[in-house]
Amino acid sequence: MKYFIVIAVALLCMTSCSNSKSYSIDGIEYTVTPVDSSLNLLVETNEFSGVIFNEKTKPYRDIFSFRMLVRPTKEEKITAFTPSLEEIIKAERILKRCVEVDKIGADSMEISDGSIQELSNYSRQYFGAVNEKGQKLIWINCFAKQSAFINPTWKIEEVSVDDGGDWFFNIITNIDTDECYGFFRNSIGG
Questions:
Q1: Who contacts 125 (Cβ-Cβ below 8 Å, separation ≥6)?
Q2: 110-114, long-range: CB within 8 Å, 24+ apart, which pairs?
Q3: pLDDT for 51-90, tens place per residue?
Q4: Other beta carbons less than 10 A from residue 21's beta carbon
């Protein structure tokens, strides 16, 4: 009985001591929770969930100037920043429009039907940068919630995989120009 009371008190403390904050923006409820052992924030809503990476956490590669042959321009000099919840919401709106309506990015990269799953099937990682023009860019790294790939550190480290097909894709959104570009879907190995 003594152990039951100790466990009950510990569970009560854990659930009531949460650092989560709730926000209502444009009629949508968002929960933002600090990610343990990092400066990152987990954003959860009925429409999407993802982690906002702190500007001190850099991706493994130069994602903002990496263009694969799609946009062969000079490399941009960028400065990292930590996106706010409002900036993530704007990036999500751009992502949704690019994938579901426009089906093409500012760099003429097509996002064809069937190239990715429904957006609600993906968890996201958000990395922010400001380019030389002072425009805010948010790289959205998407990976399937229900895929066989499970990375327990996805809230603190960039998810990077080889192959994986339509279960993994990423895109850059420019929240100042309302554009998306740099769409990249992983290939299917073989």
A1: 50, 51, 53, 140, 141, 142, 154, 158, 159
A2: 111/183, 114/166
A3: 999 998 876 566 665 443 334 455 667 889 999 999 999 9
A4: 12
Helix (H, G, I), strand (E, B) or coil at 159: coil
Q: Are 59 and 47 a contacting pair, CB within 8 Å?
A: no
pLDDT, tens digit, 9 for 90 and up, residues 150-168? 677 889 988 877 666 667 8
181 membership: H or E segment, kind and range:
strand 179-185
Q: Please count the other Cβ atoms lying within 10 Å of the Cβ belonging to residue 2.
A: 6
- CA gap 76, 131 in Å, rounded: 6
Q: How far is CA 127 from CA 37, 49, 181, in A?
A: 18, 14, 15
